[in-house]
Amino acid sequence: xxxxxxxxxxxNIRRNASFSAINIAGLALGMxxxxxxxxxxxxxxxIDGFHENSDRLFQVYERQYHDGQIDAGYFTPGQxxxxxxxxxxxxxxxxxxxxxxxxxxxxxxxxxxxSGNHAGEDFFKMFSYPLIAGTPxxxxxxxxxxxxxxxxxxxxxxxxxxxxxxxxRFENRKDLKVTAVFENITDLSSIKFDYLxxxxxxxxxxxxxxxxxxxxxxxxxxxxxxxxxxxxxASIKKFLxxxxxxxxxxxxxxxxxxPYSETYLNSRFENGKMSGGRIExxxxxxxxxxxxxxxxxxxxxxxxxARSVKxxxxxxxxxVIGARRISLVGQFIxxxxxxxxxxxxxxxxxxxLLLPAFNSITGKEIHIPVTDSAFWLCIVLLVVFTGFFSGSxxxxxxxxxxxxxxxxxxxxxxxxxxxFRKGLVIFQFMLSVILIIGTIxxxxxxxxxxxxxxxxxRENVIYIPLEGVLPEKFPLFKEEILKQPxxxxxxxxxxxxTDISNGTGGVEWEGKDPNSMPMFTQAGxxxxxxxxxxxxxxxxxxxxxDFATDSSAYIINxxxxxxxxxxxxxxxxxxxxxxxxxxxxxxKDFHFQSLHEPIRPIIIRLMEKNGWGTxxxxxxxxxxxxxxxxxxxxxxxxxxxxxxxYQFSDEEYQKLYKSEQVVDKLAxxxxxxxxxxxxxxxxxxxxxxxxxxxxxxxxxxVLGASIxxxxxxxxxxxxxxxxxxxxVAAPLAWFALDNWLQQFAYRTExxxxxxxxxxxxxxxxxxxxxSYQAIKAALTNPVKSLKTE
Length: 789
Hints:
Layout: H1 2-15, H2 17-46, E1 57-66, E2 69-73, H3 80-87, E3 91-97, E4 101-107, E5 110-119, H4 123-126, E6 131-133, E7 145-149, H5 150-157, H6 160-163, E8 167-170, E9 174-182, E10 195-198, H7 199-205, E11 218-223, H8 229-235, E12 251-259, E13 269-270, E14 273-274, H9 279-306, H10 308-320, H11 325-362, H12 373-398, H13 403-408, H14 415-451, E15 461-465, H15 474-482, E16 487-493, E17 503-504, E18 507-509, E19 520-525, H16 529-532, E20 537-540, E21 553-557, H17 558-564, E22 573-576, E23 579-587, E24 602-606, E25 614-619, H18 624-638, E26 647-648, H19 649-655, H20 658-692, H21 694-702, H22 707-741, H23 752-779, H24 782-786
Transmembrane segments: 21-41, 284-305, 326-354, 374-398, 419-442, 670-691, 718-737, 752-775
Domain MacB-like periplasmic core: 20-238, 433-628
Subcellular location: Cell membrane
């Protein structure tokens, strides 16, 4: 029987080649989309899950309570990891981690910048990064230890074996010994590094990290086997009380922890609690995959029922000779399974061909896991679901035909059946309209992020890291740079202007509430900072070398002034970290973090002689190329031990919204795919409708109906379906997108024109789809249609 069903299915596919091709293509596109999203979601969820001790690894975070607010984040004191291991028996290992940094190394004549991090000696005992040479116990056990990647070992020494025991000059100030070589980090790790340096070196270069009142590094701990994580988390809640002297009733910190494998997808805090993160995008595109697959299945249903009239006599004869309904249902679902299998084969080929482009869009290195049994189980379930879901409705409808009516040629579909098929089209286009509206809003928000006025001019600004002798020779560096062609201004900052995040509560001023301890963001800058960055002053002036008192002067923003409530801020005394000074300027609020965050109060101090930071060089419009040539020459002359490197401010700003840009590109692709598949479904219903009304159209033509009137008669019914879909989709799309936009402190508006554009686009696409079939039916010779009796 199965062999008979298979042969029948193959004959029907061959007999109706064009119809079958449309059906297979629709399902194949739906499966292609679903498989790509499945691979992406699986990849996202597997990040950081490869560590053998994953169930015992936890990321520590802080909740800071102040002025009725709760701020939470992963930034912790620089000695917390080692201290927790020492004093808490339940902690087997602990390490601090800094941030990815691109630093300079030298071996012989080779001077290369590499990206990496600093970590404690327990790092390789906790994490399962494979070592090619060295052991976890000795990889980072010395203040002069450095572990490097296979790539870095090859770049400097030719091979991992030759690298062991060799010396690398670090930032031209310290010699480090290669004590381990690890395999190149894959994109299944949330942290990327080509080197790891012992944590003591970080503390040597960042004395502030030794103060328990300062935060910045991350802390990861590994609990001993048998430790209950919830009980342990409750026990460390007040751990910092004995270390942080700044804690009081007006400001105190609680500690919590999160499974390390969950931090990549769940890293956003709201009111001190986890509130999502990248997991929302994984859920969103999983839903999109289901939407598109359902659209493809509905398309199959409509196309199959549209062709059912041509198979009605076959069904009637089968029933007359004794075929039971259950066997007919099995036959039609079997045919759907065969088509679904062909669709999967085509879809899998498309996945293989499209995967490089998909990786380029998402920035991933996704591969088809051909050896993963769980993946193939998902694929089998996908094919079975697609075949059964798409074939079930046609199977039950076709198997219900009454043989007497069929063989007499009086077979008609009930109004309920026709209404159901129309409902399917409405549902299809409802999902498509939601995707269209979503695509427009996401693109609008991404454009808003890219072009919003930040309160300063980020165009034509170059970041140059101050390394080697540049910090101590910054006045000379600045003087020489200003002599070069195409330079408009030079200043410096302690970090980068696109990501100022260092916070403090150590600010005092006249009239401050003694029971209040608001948090301020702080940054150190050089002379002419305001002028160089084209910031807007509301009152006062910029830092200027002509004023010797500027070493104890401060500039605040409007948000800080709002907290301080100073009527005449310029000239008012202020104490910052026990250093008394005066306010010399008030800046109009500007964005110094991602637009996910509101503008926070900031205090800016003069740090012209700081030992680290970034030079900010503004070039004249259209002269960036020649300016870079001059800057490079100055850097090589003053700082020959360090290769010249730079970043553009606008490019660094764009990196803040990499996730949104990926979502925008994927949304565009999947929306177009959903619309195309929906059009196939609408085409199926148009074919079905014109077949049902063949005689009516013929009679109307005989009675003098014009082609235009016939076209309008056929088309308006489908336009009504799309219009209904739009009115159902619009409020659903608004609700979902408004909720998505809430994660941005600054966001675009969901304007009425977006819905109007989406509605007109859907109507136009639908009209274009049915017009061919409508015109074809209107042009058909009425003699042929009336001779079908």
